[in-house]
Amino acid sequence: MKRLPALLSLAAITLAGCGIRSTEVPTNFGPAPSRVHCSLSEPDSSPRAGRGLPVQVFLLCGSQLVAVDRTIRVPDGTADAARRVLVAQGLLDELQASPSSAEKEAGYTTDVRGAMGVTGPRRTDPDETLRLTTPPASLTSYALAQIVCTFSDSAAAEGDGSVILGGPADTPPRRYECTDEVRTHPGTDEPPSTEVATT
What we know:
The protein is of the alpha+beta class. The protein is 27% helix and 18% strand. The longest helix has 17 residues, at 80-96.
């Protein structure tokens, strides 16, 4: 009979162990929910929004391309060929510029860096060709997507959702398209392109 109290104590200890006990092991449920919504609290929060030709450029936000408003300067009366290059250079300058404080706070970034320039077509190129001082093939997929989608949706292109780009070398230019897939996944879906005929 002396064993009965000992068995009862053991049973009580076993039952007590079936409850939920606190643990000191840290748990990780991931980072706190982000407050970045890729939208600006004020429509005209960019300091570069002002008088001039209204345009849109594509910045990166949440690993996607998002259009933001800008203005660029193009002199009145500029011939069409020169106007296309001036518009393209203005857009390129905006892509290379650091986003405004409000845009940074909202999560906007750009992968277009350096002091890239753009010129018009060479003698054998199609008339609407734009040649970058950096070969398109050497750009990151993000930067190329930003440039292609920004140019193709502007007066720098023909308005058909594509743009003809070349580099500084004598390599033939290519026609690049801005697709929904490129806008949604610019890091993995590069703008589709085809080589264009030269004369």
